[in-house]
Amino acid sequence: IFVNPGEIPGNNIDDDNNGFIDDVNGWDFINHDRTVFDNANDDAHGTHVAGTIGARGNNSTGVVGVNWNVQILPLKAIGPFGTSDSILMEAYNYARMMKQRGVNLRVLNNSYGGQGFSQSLGDAIKQLSEAGILFVAAAGNESVDNDFVQHYPAGYDLPNVISVAASTKFCSFSSLFSNKGKQTVHLAAPGDEVLSTTPRGYNSDGLVAAYTEADGSTYSNFSGTSMASPHVAGTAALACAANPNISMDHLRTVLLSSVDQNGNFASQVMT
Question: How far is CA 203 from CA 40, 44, 129, 209, 253, in A?
């Protein structure tokens, strides 16, 4: 997890003068505090996504993320009762601000959706583009064609946005739930029965962990375009690690040109 070098933990002072007190490991924009993790059930989704991006490998424990050595800056902008455009914009603006302050923040993963079109939200994502931050977003789980029924924020036609559908373990399109769109959905990545990290004590709505380690750490199978998006975000981070000077435009082009062409509605599949 990213550690803010400009903050001294626990001194209740905004040491780096960025407007956030003790934002050592990200920020919770729902509860307006520095503690991003609140409880196992509410935060299982985010923990699962984070594991897909960056769970450690070669340690004989749990699962392996796409990028074993990535740093993750957690920004909580969705709570048990959802979110709002203003809360999302606060999180986007924080990410942009930290990038402008010198943090090597290259990719923002967005495993959520359901917002209507908002010019303000689109403008905030455009500002992320201008700051050089790739915006990877889930295409949605309504089994609709996004060319006709747009799904936001993945649907913004901006140079930093990649909209991600879900594929199965057999590299076919997850037609049971994933949105599609030949014009508006850019690629598909694994999103069906993805095993990843969930918090200790996770047990929500009758769903239980697939297995539990001796220390109580849990691992669970989730399905959705939320699970597909972090595969792409993690891959983007790997590309940045291989070529630290790659521009955001070139990074997006590399991702979209390094996939297998597919005859499904989601025209490209990341394998």
Answer: 8, 9, 38, 7, 40
Q: Which CA distances in Å does 156 have to 87, 149, 233, 242?
A: 18, 12, 17, 28
Q: Where are the alpha helices (DSSP H) in 33-116?
A: 44-54, 85-100
**From residue 130, how far is each of 6, 54, 92, 95, 220 by CA, in Å?**
24, 26, 12, 12, 37
Taking CA atoms, 69 is separated from 18, 46, 57, 197, in Å, by 27, 18, 9, 16
Q: Are 67 and 234 in contact (CB under 8 A)?
A: yes
- Residue 220, helix vs strand vs coil: strand
Other CB atoms within 10 A of residue 253 CB: 12
- At 244, list the tokens: 């630290």
Beta bridge partners of 203: 208
- Give the residue with greater pLDDT, 261 vs 78: 78
Separation of alpha carbons 214 and 179, rounded Å = 38
Residue 99: CB atoms within 10 A of its CB come to 18
- How many other CB atoms sit within 10 Å of the CB of residue 69? 11
pLDDT digits (tens, 9 = 90+) for 96-105: 999 999 999 9
What token pair was written down for 22? 């003790």
Question: DSSP assignment, residue 116?
Answer: P
Please state the rounded mean pLDDT for residues 194-220: 89
